[in-house]
Amino acid sequence: CVRACVRACVRACVCSFCCSLDASVNAGIDSGIVIAVPIPEHAAIDGEEIDQAIQLALKEARAENISGKDVTPYVLKRVNESTKGRSLQANISLIKNNATVGSQIAVSLAKLRDSGCAGKRRSCEQGKKQSINKPTSCPGGPVVVGGAIIDFMAKITSSNIMLEGTNPGRIMTSFGGVARNIAECMARLEVDPLFISAVGPDLHGLKLKENFKQVGMSNKGLLEYTDCSTATYCLVLDHLGETYCAIGDMDIFSKIEPHDVLQFADHIRNAPLLCIDGNLRVDTIKFICELCKEHSIP
User: Fold this and answer.
1) Confidence label for 131 from pLDDT (cuts 50, 70 and 90)
2) Whole-angstrom Cα distance, residue 188 to residue 29?
3) What tens digit of pLDDT does each residue of 84-117 get?
4) Between the CA atoms of 234, 235, 236 and 242, what dihedral angle is there, to the nearest 10 degrees?
């Protein structure tokens, strides 16, 4: 559509994107990259018109008790009818443009790697592994404050959910927390951040500390509270992949008070940047913001 209400945060040509992608892979970053390919202008439809058609289709789907995997085909059909076939032509043009851009990326990435530049970067990364395993978090590096969490995602594979029994399914674990994720990306790029967070004296806390060492993050800013468990988040999905419920145990972050952060004041005063997430207490967030304002830390 045209005049979309959501704007891309970054626009890049194929060449520059491939350089960023290759650097991300060489840095060992496992997260994905979303590439938003636009609909060609000649086939685009006004964003407000499409949005109204989609909202109407969703309303009709709810009225007819359509859910799960059946929603998407129903909405596509109704939107196509509402736009008199123009949405279908727009989607066809988008698919073709996706294929075009995808092939351009594949060719550009192959040329980049064949040129030897990618190989040189890999050799550089391998040569730096020894320093990554010895993080120091020297004053002058960025500071990240917030949550370090063990995430659980449980998907029930049966359509018949038993509320008072054991359901068959799959359970996956990962390391999470917005602040921890940001700090990990910085560490993998050898920026050497000071990450301030909290863990409990339990297995999850030990797992997080091991993860910090693996990705090159220092434990210097990690506070341990013996009367709380390490933060965990559990998301439960039904057999269709829809959210059934979620449980978050984040009480430990309420333990991080302003005086706990104050012990890292010297590091914060010399930081070129400070990042913070919303897991902390309000008074702690205010204290950090005031400290940054006082010392002109962005």
Assistant:
1) very low
2) 7
3) 888 888 889 999 998 998 888 888 888 887 776 5
4) 180
